[in-house]
Amino acid sequence: MTLRLFYIAVVLAMMTLLPFFPTSGFSVEEAEPTVAAPKRKEREEVRGKIIKIDPAAKRVRIVPGIFGRDKEVRISTRTEITVHGRRAAFSELRTGDKVRVVYVHSETKEKTAEVIEVV
Q1: What's the CA gap between 58 and 25, in Å, rounded?
Q2: What's the predicted TM-score (pTM) here?
Q3: For position 61, which CATH number holds?
Q4: Residue 8: C-alpha distances to residues 1, 15, 16, 62 (Å)
Q5: What is the per-residue pLDDT across 30-47, written as a single tens digit (0 to 9) for each?
Q6: What does the alpha-carbon distance between residue 101 and residue 114 come to, in Å, rounded to a whole number?
Q7: Rounded to whole angstroms, what are the CA distances from 48 to 3, 67, 92?
Q8: Residue 38 forms part of a structural domain
Q9: CA end-to-end span of the chain
């Protein structure tokens, strides 16, 4: 019994002290600098109603529901716009349209729409 307690005490002491000793052959100065991987653009989706269209800035503001915060997305030349299943132009979007928007965040935290679908 005392031998078992001795082994438990030794293991606990090693677990407590071992993190403070550097491992052999490893030095922080010798470590290769790690290059941060480029961030993958995460796609997000919002469904709601268009509450504002700004044709000059090519932006659309969408409110997802009663308690949702509105989101403003930028329309690019690559944004695919469909109205009831057919391709459409930005000028065909109307305030009050129910939409599904898929967007990505840019490096400047701006939301750029990839898909706008009027349902």
Answers
A1: 58
A2: 0.64
A3: 2.40.50.320
A4: 11, 11, 12, 62
A5: 555 566 555 566 888 999
A6: 8
A7: 69, 11, 17
A8: no
A9: 74
